[in-house]
Specification:
98 residues, mainly alpha, 4 helices, 63% helix, binds zinc ion
């Protein structure tokens, strides 16, 4: 059994507040308290988790764009195609095979 502190109900963390702080979280700039709250919320909230993953991908893209030597053209193409396939997911699922 774990004691529940009503003043720290993590599930009540507001989605908008979490999304606003995602950039800090992704950049490792959020304070430890915020990180715990945001992580707890991401565990429960699929919508915010998707935002978080998109931010991570964006951050990786930006970082690679700033370091041309570390990002061969093939790798960049791979990332681009991955983003394309991500945006395709859920849009059309008629090609399912059994
Ligand atoms: Zn949320």
């Amino acid at each position: 059994m774990s004691p529940i502190d009503p003043d720290r109900d993590l599930s009540r963390t507001d989605c908008a507040a979490v999304v606003l702080r995602l950039f800090e979280y992704v950049d490792n700039e959020a304070c430890a308290d915020d990180r715990v709250q945001i992580k707890a919320h991401l565990d429960e909230c699929g919508a915010c988790l998707r935002e978080y993953e998109r931010d991570l991908l964006l951050k990786a893209l930006v970082r690679r764009a700033c370091e041309p030597e570390a990002a061969p053209r093939a790798l960049r193409l791979q990332i681009m195609s991955r983003i394309t396939s991500v945006s395709w997911t859920g849009a059309d699922r008629t090609g399912q095979q059994r």
